[in-house]
Amino acid sequence: MYVCLCHGVTDRDIREAAENGVSSMRQLGKELGVGRQCGRCACHAREILREINTPDYLALAGMLAQPA
Fold it and tell me: Which Gene3D superfamilies match (predicted)?
C-alpha cells in the first residue's frame, strides 16, 4: 500500500529500508523522501518503523520456553 503519495513510497519500501538499517524518520526521509513534502505520511511511516524495530517478544519467549 502507498504510504507516501508525494514520493510514491509503499509500506514495502519502508520495511525494506528498515531491514537495511534505517531506524529513524530522519534517515527514512533522506533515503526515500518520506515526510519531506506534505508530511501526511509521517505518522504511518513512523508506525511501520516501530513495528520493524520492536523485538518480537512472543516469538522470543516461545524459543526460550522450548527444551534444548
Answer: BFD-like [2Fe-2S]-binding domain (1.10.10.1100)
